[in-house]
Write a structure and sequence with these properties.
The structure holds 4 protein chains of 4 kinds.
Chain B lengths: L16 H5 L4 H29 L10 H36 L8 H23 L13 H5 L4 H28 L12 H33 L12 H34 L7 H14 L15 H29 L8 H24 L1 H7 L3 H31 L5 H28 L13 H31 L44
Chain C lengths: L7 H23 L5 H21 L7 H25 L8
Helix pairs in contact in C: 1-2
Chain D lengths: L25 H36 L1 H8 L4 H27 L2 H31 L15 H37 L9 H25 L4
The chains are: A alpha+beta, B mainly alpha, C mainly alpha, D mainly alpha.
Chain lengths: 312, 532, 96, 224
C-alpha cells in the first residue's frame, strides 16, 4: 500500500528540477526551525515543569538574542528572495525561437490551435526537447493553465494575452488542469499534455484533419471584408499587412509599438486605440463579432503573410 | 439562591431581554458576540465537514458540482467574516480591554452596541443568501466571474459582507480611542498588557483596511447592476483592479485574525510559566510592525495572475519582511518558558499548540512568498494547508485558549480541567491529521476548489477527512462542558490562576462598572517575579 | 481643553485664500502642461486640503494624536495607490 | 477617584453638559469624540480612495478617452459648485465658533446657511445629472458617445457617477445631521462647555468638502 504513496510530483520539464531544489531548501529551513522550536518547547516544558522547590527565576531581556533572531531570519529570507526571484525571472523568460501554440480557455474546456494546422480540445501534443511558448486567451472568465509535472502555471486573463513557456524533457502524458476557480465545472477543466518524440510529433501533426488556422483566418479576412481597406498592397484607407508581423511601427500618437499578437488583437477590438501613423481612425470595431478562436485564426493568417525583421 | 443574596455583578445587575438587547455594558455586548459567533462557527464547521466528506472519493458523488462550489464559498465567507475576524476582538477584546486598562467601559458604548447589531444584520443577509440558494463565487468574489458570469446570490451575500465590515470598523475605532484616552493613571504604554497592544495593532488594520473592502464590494454591486465595465474586460475594465482592491484589505485581514491570538498567547504563556514575557518591547512593537507591513504585501496573492513581474518582485521582498516580526514573537514566547515554573493547564496546552502550529504556518508562508515556488504551489492545496495552519492552528487555538483562560472571569465558573486537556489534545491531533497531508497534496499539484480530483490524490484526502472528523469532535467537547460549567462548574474566585493583570483585581464576574475605584498602576506588566 | 477659538478674521482670510486657489487650479488646467497638468492640480488640491484641515477643522490647535490620525488616512491611501500602480505602470518592463 | 455626580450609566445631557459615566471629565469625552471622528474620516479617506485608485489606473490606461469624455462635463457648474461648497465650509466653521462662544441664535443662523448651501450644491449636481441624462451619457444600455472610444468613455462616466454619487450621498447624510443639530440648538442643548456634536459634525462636513476639492480637478479639469 505504501509503495505508490505519492510524495513528489514527476519532473518533466527543464525548470522542474531547479524549482524542486529551491523547494527542498525551503523545506529544510522550515523543518529545522519548526524542529528547533518544538525541541525548545519540549525541553523547557520538561526541565522547568512546575514542581515543589522550583521557583521561576526572572530572566532579563537580552538585546543580543533579539538581534540574533532578527538578523538570522533576515539573512535567510534575503537568500530566499534573491534565489526565488532570480529563478522566477529565468523561468518566465521564454527562449527565442520557441514554437508558438495558441491555447484558448473557455468555460470548462481548453482548445489548442497549432499553427501548422491541428486543432485539439483538452489535449496538447508537444515535441520533447524543444521550447514551446503557449499564448493564452480566455473567452469568458479568468482561468489558469497549470501543468504540475512542468512546475508552471499562468492565469489566463480575459481581455489580454498571457504567455507561458516550457521545454518538455521526458516522453509521456502529464496532467493539465485549470487552477483558477472559473465556475460550475471548474474541476472538469482537465486535459493532458502528450510529450512525443519530435518525429512522432511531426507525423501526428501532418495527418491532422482540419485546415490550419491561417486558412480559416484568410476566409474570415474576406467574409468580414477586411480586404476592402487592408488589401494586400498599400492602400490609403488601411495600413498594409504584408510582412508587418513582428515589426515595430510608429503610431499617430508618436510612440512606436511592436506589431505583435496583442497589437493585432487590440486593433481588431478597439481599432482607434493605437492608429498607425498617416492613417485616420475610421476602422469599425469587430468586438462581439469575432470570438477568441477567430481572432487567433486572423493572427495566424497575418503571420502567414510573412514576418518583418524581428521574430515575435 | 434567593434574589436577596445573589452577588451583585454585571450578569445580575438587571434582568429581562431588554437589559440584554439594549445594553451598553461592554461585558454584555461581549457575551452577545460570543453567542452569535459560536452559531456561525458551528454553521461554518458543518460546511467544512460536508466538503471533507465530498473529498473522500475522487469522483464528485456526494453533492453536485454546483452545490460543492457553494459549500466551499460559504464555508470561507462564514468562517472568515463571521467567525475569525470578530472572534477574539469582539468577544475577549470587548470584555477585557476596559478591564485591563482600568476603565469603566469603552469610549463609545452606544457605537459598541451598534456594531453588534450591524454584525447581526450582515449575518442575516448572508444566512438569507445561504438559505435561498447560496453563492458560488468563492469567498474572494473574483471578477469577471462574480460580476458578470455568476448567477447565484452574489448581491445578497456581498451586501451581507459589506454591512458586517462596518461592525469591524466600529469595533476597531472604539478600541483605538479607548486605549489612547482611557488608561488608568500610571498605566503607560509600555506597562500595557500585550493583549492590549495586539488589539491596538488589530484595530489599526480594521479601521484602515475594511473601507477598501467596502468599496470593492460596492463596485461589484454596481458592475452586476449596470454592467458599466469597471471590471469587465469587454468594456475596457481590468479584472486585476478588483484583485488589488480586494487583497489590499484581505491580506491585512489575516493579520486581524492572528494578531489578537498572539495577544492571548502572550498572556497565557506568562501566566502559566510564572514569568515576565521575554523581550516585552520587541513583542509589543512587532505587533505594530505586522500591522504596518501587513498593508504592503498583498501582491503575493497575484504572482501568477498577470501582474507585472516587477510588482511581483516588490511584493515578494515586502512579504519576506512581514515574516520577521512573527518570527520575533515566536522566539520570545519560547524564551519566556526558560527558567519558568510551567504548568500544563488547558489554556497553556492551547498556547503551546499555537506556537508550534503557527510556526509551521508562518514558515510555509515563505514558500508562497518565494516567486519561483509560488508559481507551482499557487491555488493548490498547499495554500489551503498554509492558511489553515495559521487560521485554525493559530487563531482558533488561541481563541479556545483565551476562552478557557478568562472563562472564570467572564462567567464566574471554572471549566472541568481534565476534560479541557483531553479536548485540547484531540484538537491538536485532529488538526495535524487534517491539514498536514494537504501540504503534500498541494505540491503534488492538486488544485484548490476541486469538486472531483484525479485518483492518485485519494490517499491523502482520506487521511485529511479522517482528521477533520476528529477535529470536529475536538471542537464539540469544549462547547458541551463549557455550557455544563455555567450551571455545575465550581464557583471561581477573583483570580483562580493568580495571574497578573488589572482584570484579575476585580471580582469574577466583575461588577457593572468594573472597578469600585479606578486602580493606580505602579509596576510593569506580568510582574510575576514580585508576586510569586 | 476644548479647542481654541479662532477669530472670524482668520476664517474669512482662509475662505478667500481657498477661492483664490480655486481660480488658480482652473487657470492651471487651461495651460497645456502635458503630464504636469495632473501634478499641478493635485498639489493645489493638497494645499486647499491643508488649509481647510488646519484652519476650519482646527487641526492646528488639536492634540498631536489627532494630527497622526489625519495623516494616517492619507498615508495608507498613498500605500494603496503607489503599490497598485507598481503593477499597472510596469507591465511591460522586465518581461515582454 | 474624583467624585463626579454619578447618575447611573446613562449620560445626563443637562444644558451645562455633564459627561458620560465612562469618562473622567468633559474634556476627556470631547477629546475622545474628536479623535473618534478623525479616525472615522480616515476610513472615509480609504473608502473614497478605492475609487480614486480605480480612476487613476483607468485614466493612465485610456488618457485620450478620459480627456475626451471629461470635456463633456460642464465646467461652469463645477466651479460654482466648488465655490458653494467652500462657502458652506466657511459657514460651518463660523457655526462651530458661535457654539464655542455660546451664541445660540448665531449658531442656528450659520447651521441653516450651511444646510442651505449644501442643498444648493445638491440642486446644481442634480441639474448636471439631468443634463447628462439628456445627452445619453449615463452608463448602461442607452449610453451614446460620439467619438472613437465609446466603451472607455463609458468607463469615465461610470467613475464620474460613482464618485460624485457617493459624494452626494455623503452630503445628504451631512444635511440630515445638520438638521438634527439645528433641532438640538433650538432645544438649547449646546453651551460653551458642551458643543461636541457641533464640532464633530463640523469635521465631517469639512471632510466632505475636501473630497469635492479633489473630485473637481480630477473629473472636470482632466485635460482641458
Amino acid at each position: 500500500m505504501f509503495t505508490e504513496l505519492p510524495f513528489w510530483p514527476q519532473e518533466a520539464s527543464t525548470v522542474a528540477g531547479s524549482v524542486d531544489v529551491l523547494t527542498i531548501f525551503l523545506v529544510i529551513v522550515a523543518f529545522s526551525f519548526s524542529f528547533l522550536i518544538l525541541l525548545l518547547i519540549l525541553y523547557f516544558s520538561f526541565r522547568y515543569r512546575r514542581r515543589p522547590g522550583l521557583a521561576a527565576t526572572p530572566v532579563p531581556t537580552r538585546l543580543s538574542l533579539e538581534v540574533l533572531w532578527t538578523a538570522v531570519p533576515l539573512g535567510l529570507t534575503a537568500v530566499m528572495f534573491t534565489w526565488g526571484s532570480g529563478l522566477y525571472m529565468h523561468n518566465q523568460q521564454d527562449p527565442p525561437g520557441a514554437m508558438n501554440i495558441y491555447v484558448v480557455g473557455k468555460q470548462w474546456m481548453w482548445t489548442v490551435e497549432h499553427l501548422e494546422g491541428r486543432r485539439e480540445i483538452g489535449e496538447l501534443h508537444v515535441p520533447a526537447g524543444r521550447p514551446v511558448k503557449l499564448i493564452l486567451a480566455s473567452q469568458d472568465v479568468i482561468h489558469d493553465l497549470f501543468i504540475p509535472a512542468f512546475r508552471i502555471k499562468q492565469d489566463v486573463v480575459p481581455g489580454r494575452y498571457t504567455t507561458l513557456w516550457f521545454e518538455a524533457t521526458r516522453i509521456g502524458s502529464y496532467r493539465l488542469v485549470c487552477a483558477q476557480y472559473c465556475g460550475t465545472r471548474h474541476s472538469g477543466m482537465i486535459g493532458n499534455v502528450v510529450v512525443m518524440e519530435p518525429q512522432d510529433y511531426q507525423t501526428w501533426l501532418a495527418n491532422g484533419a482540419d485546415d490550419p488556422p491561417a486558412k480559416s483566418g484568410e476566409r474570415l479576412f474576406h467574409t468580414f471584408s477586411c480586404a476592402g481597406c487592408h488589401e494586400l498592397q498599400a492602400s490609403q484607407k488601411g495600413p498594409p499587412l504584408i510582412g508587418m508581423y513582428g515589426k515595430s511601427v510608429r503610431m499617430e500618437s508618436g510612440e512606436t509599438v511592436a506589431f505583435d499578437d496583442a497589437y493585432i488583437r487590440e486593433s481588431i477590438l478597439d481599432p482607434n486605440e493605437k492608429v498607425v501613423e498617416g492613417y485616420r481612425p475610421i476602422m469599425p470595431t469587430f468586438r462581439n463579432q469575432l470570438n477568441e478562436d477567430e481572432i487567433i485564426q486572423m493572427i495566424a493568417y497575418i503571420r502567414s503573410l510573412g514576418t518583418g525583421d524581428a521574430k515575435p | 439562591m434567593t434574589h436577596a443574596d445573589v452577588p451583585e455583578n454585571y450578569l445580575t445587575a438587571s434582568w429581562g431581554w431588554r437589559s440584554w438587547l439594549l445594553t451598553r455594558d461592554h461585558k454584555r455586548i461581549a457575551l452577545l458576540y460570543l453567542i452569535s459567533i459560536t452559531l456561525f462557527f458551528i454553521v461554518g464547521g458543518f460546511f467544512a465537514l460536508l466538503i471533507r466528506l465530498e473529498l473522500l472519493t475522487p469522483a464528485g458523488d456526494l453533492v453536485q458540482a454546483e452545490t460543492y462550489n457553494k459549500l466551499f464559498t460559504m464555508h470561507g465567507l462564514i468562517m472568515i467574516f463571521f467567525f475569525l475576524i470578530p472572534s477574539i476582538p469582539s468577544v475577549l477584546g470587548n470584555f477585557l480591554i476596559p478591564l485591563m486598562i482600568g476603565a469603566r467601559d469603552l469610549a463609545f458604548p452606544r457605537l459598541n452596541l451598534l456594531s453588534w447589531y450591524i454584525y447581526i444584520i450582515g449575518g442575516v443577509f448572508t444566512l438569507a443568501a445561504v438559505v435561498t440558494g447560496g453563492v458560488d463565487t468563492g469567498w474572494t468574489f473574483y471578477t469577471p466571474y462574480s460580476s458578470t458570469y455568476a448567477n447565484s446570490n452574489v448581491i445578497l451575500t456581498a451586501l451581507g459582507v459589506f454591512i458586517t465590515g462596518f461592525s469591524s470598523i466600529l469595533t476597531g475605532l472604539n478600541f483605538i480611542v479607548t486605549i489612547h484616552k482611557m488608561r488608568a493613571p500610571g498605566l503607560t504604554w509600555f506597562r500595557l498588557p500585550l493583549f492590549v497592544w495586539a488589539h491596538y495593532a488589530t484595530s489599526l488594520i480594521m479601521v484602515l483596511g475594511t473601507p477598501v473592502l467596502a468599496i470593492s464590494i460596492t463596485l461589484i454591486l454596481l458592475e452586476r447592476a449596470f454592467h458599466i465595465g469597471i471590471f469587465d474586460p469587454k468594456l475596457g475594465g481590468d479584472p486585476l483592479l478588483f484583485q488589488h482592491l480586494f487583497w489590499f484589505y484581505s491580506h491585512p485581514a489575516v493579520y486581524i485574525m492572528i494578531l489578537p491570538g498572539m495577544g492571548v498567547v502572550s498572556e497565557i504563556v506568562t501566566c502559566y510559566s510564572r514569568k515576565k514575557i521575554f523581550g516585552y518591547t520587541f513583542v509589543a512593537l512587532s505587533s505594530l510592525a505586522i500591522a504596518a507591513l501587513g498593508f504592503m504585501v498583498w501582491g503575493h496573492h497575484m504572482f501568477v495572475s498577470g501582474q507585472s513581474p516587477f510588482a511581483g518582485m516588490v511584493f515578494s521582498m515586502l512579504s519576506f519582511l512581514v515574516a520577521i516580526p512573527s518570527g520575533i514573537k515566536v522566539f520570545n514566547w519560547t524564551a519566556t518558558l526558560y527558567k519558568g515554573s510551567i504548568s500544563f493547564d488547558a489554556p497553556m496546552l492551547y498556547a503551546l499548540g499555537f506556537i508550534g502550529l503557527f510556526t509551521i504556518g508562518g514558515l510555509t508562508g515563505l514558500f508562497l512568498a518565494t516567486l519561483a515556488v509560488d508559481v507551482h504551489v499557487h491555488d493548490t492545496y498547499f495554500v489551503i494547508a498554509h492558511f489553515h495552519y495559521i487560521m485554525v492552528g493559530g487563531a482558533v487555538m488561541a481563541y479556545f485558549g483565551g476562552i478557557h483562560f478568562w472563562w472564570p472571569k467572564i462567567t464566574g465558573r471554572l471549566y472541568p480541567e481534565v476534560w479541557a486537556r483531553i479536548a485540547a489534545l484531540i484538537v491538536f491531533i485532529g488538526f495535524n491529521l487534517t491539514f498536514f497531508p494537504q501540504f503534500l497534496l498541494g505540491y503534488l499539484g492538486m488544485p484548490r476548489r476541486y469538486h472531483a480530483y484525479p485518483e492518485e490524490f485519494q490517499v491523502w484526502n482520506v487521511m485529511s477527512t479522517a482528521g477533520a472528523s476528529i477535529l470536529g469532535l475536538g471542537y464539540l467537547i469544549p462547547i458541551i462542558y463549557l455550557l455544563w460549567s455555567l450551571r455545575y462548574g465550581r464557583v471561581a474566585t477573583a483570580n483562580p490562576w493568580n495571574a497578573m493583570g488589572l482584570e484579575w483585581e476585580t471580582p469574577s464576574p466583575p461588577p457593572e462598572t468594573n472597578f469600585a475605584a479606578t486602580p493606580i498602576v505602579k509596576e510593569e506588566a506580568y510582574s510575576y517575579d514580585i508576586h510569586t | 481643553m476644548s479647542n481654541a477659538i479662532v477669530s472670524t478674521r482668520t476664517y474669512v482670510a482662509t475662505f478667500l485664500l481657498l477661492l483664490v486657489l480655486l481660480a488658480v487650479t482652473i487657470a492651471a488646467a487651461y495651460i497645456p502642461l502635458g503630464r504636469f497638468n495632473w501634478v499641478a492640480a493635485m498639489t493645489i488640491s493638497a494645499a486647499k486640503t491643508a488649509l481647510i484641515a488646519s484652519c476650519f477643522m482646527n487641526l492646528r490647535s488639536s492634540h498631536r494624536l489627532v494630527w497622526i490620525a489625519a495623516c494616517a488616512g492619507c498615508f495608507w491611501l498613498a500605500l494603496l495607490m503607489i503599490l497598485s500602480l507598481t503593477d499597472f505602470w510596469t507591465r511591460g518592463w522586465l518581461l515582454p | 477617584m474624583t467624585s463626579i455626580p454619578e447618575s447611573g450609566p446613562a449620560s445626563v445631557h443637562a444644558s451645562h453638559g455633564v459627561h458620560d459615566h465612562q469618562f473622567d471629565d468633559a474634556a476627556q469625552q470631547q477629546e475622545a469624540a474628536t479623535l473618534g471622528m478623525w479616525l472615522f474620516l480616515a476610513t472615509e479617506v480609504l473608502f473614497f480612495g478605492g475609487l480614486f485608485t480605480g480612476y487613476t489606473v483607468y485614466r493612465s490606461a485610456y488618457p485620450n478617452a478620459f480627456g475626451e469624455a471629461s470635456r463633456h462635463l460642464d465646467i461652469v457648474l463645477g466651479t460654482v459648485n466648488t465655490g458653494v461648497l467652500l462657502l458652506s465650509s466657511f459657514s460651518m466653521a463660523m457655526a462651530v465658533q458661535s457654539a464655542q462662544l455660546g451664541k445660540r441664535w448665531r449658531l442656528l443662523g450659520f447651521l441653516t446657511s450651511t444646510a442651505v448651501l449644501g442643498a444648493v450644491f445638491l440642486a446644481i449636481k442634480f441639474t448636471e445629472y439631468v443634463h447628462k441624462f439628456h445627452e445619453h451619457l449615463v452608463p448602461g444600455s442607452q449610453f451614446v458617445f460620439a467619438g472613437p472610444e465609446s466603451p472607455h468613455a463609458q468607463l469615465f462616466f461610470s467613475f464620474y457617477f460613482a464618485m460624485t454619487g457617493l459624494h452626494a450621498l455623503h452630503m445628504i447624510i451631512g444635511l440630515a445631521m445638520l438638521v438634527v443639530l439645528m433641532m438640538m440648538t433650538l432645544a438649547n442643548r449646546f453651551g460653551p462647555e458642551y458643543h461636541t456634536p457641533v464640532e464633530t459634525i463640523g469635521l465631517y462636513w469639512h471632510f466632505v468638502d475636501i473630497v469635492w476639492v479633489f473630485l473637481f480637478p480630477l473629473l472636470y479639469l482632466v485635460s482641458r
